[in-house]
Design brief:
It holds the Pfam family SEC-C. It is built from nine helices and no strands. By secondary structure, it is an all-alpha fold. It starts with 5 loop residues before the first helix and ends in a 28-residue tail after the last helix.
Length: 217
């Protein structure tokens, strides 16, 4: 994690300090946010932020200091918007952890986070399979998720071969899915999908119940 900017290291520490049984790792959060950005159906920020807080928090920001809530919500939203910009440029830059001993990229944590985002709108994701152009990247995504969860029907030789190209496969699949989302938006509205942004009068994504402009905005 030391190779990443201090803002990411601070966010990683904040995630680890959340008073929940299994807080997200930064790489899981990154996958989760990416899944939200390219998802076929928008998910309100208040809903997905509650997933980050954890079930134990019951949707309430688990911080005592309001400034901590503000900083955390701002940092997460900023990363969400940064991912959207990177995808629009065709240059996704996922945050991956690495095994400290072997140096191997631990991509499976990232894809676990992505799968959590898919689960929020599973019906909408499944409906994408009806699009011929989306069928292949969706099948490859399903393979990545199955391997990460040790649920794949592939044999060990096939899995090892897939592991060797997993990072390139992951980034390629995500960019294809984003491109498909753009095509779909173009067909409906004549323009590419804009990143989901919280309006000043919208409910604050931190879950406080206040308007964004009177809380974390």
């Amino acid at each position: 994690m030391s190779r990443y900017p201090s803002r990411f290291r601070r966010l990683d520490d904040a995630l680890a300090d959340l008073p929940v049984e299994e807080p997200m790792l930064l790489t899981e959060l990154d996958g989760f946010l990416t899944g939200l950005v390219i998802g076929p159906e928008a998910v309100p920020a208040t809903e997905w932020m509650a997933v980050i807080w954890g079930e134990e928090a019951e949707g309430v920001p688990p911080f005592e200091d309001r400034l901590d809530v503000q900083w955390f919500a701002t940092a997460v939203t900023a990363r969400h918007e940064e991912i959207a910009r990177d995808l629009a440029r065709g240059k996704l830059q996922p945050i991956f952890d690495a095994d400290p001993r072997s140096g191997d990229v631990l991509w499976d944590y990232w894809i676990d986070g992505f799968a959590e985002a898919v689960a929020l709108r599973s019906k909408a994701w499944h409906a994408l399979a009806d699009d011929v152009q989306m069928a292949d990247p969706l099948a490859r995504l399903a393979t990545l998720i199955a391997i990460a969860r040790e649920e794949s029907d592939l044999d060990s030789v096939e899995i090892n071969a897939f592991q060797d190209r997993a990072v390139a496969e992951l980034t390629g699949v995500v960019q294809q899915l984003y491109a498909g989302r753009v095509r779909s938006a173009d067909a409906r509205t004549g323009g590419a999908p804009a990143p989901t942004k919280v309006g000043r009068n919208d409910p604050c994504p931190c879950g406080s119940g206040k308007k964004h402009k009177r809380c974390c905005g």
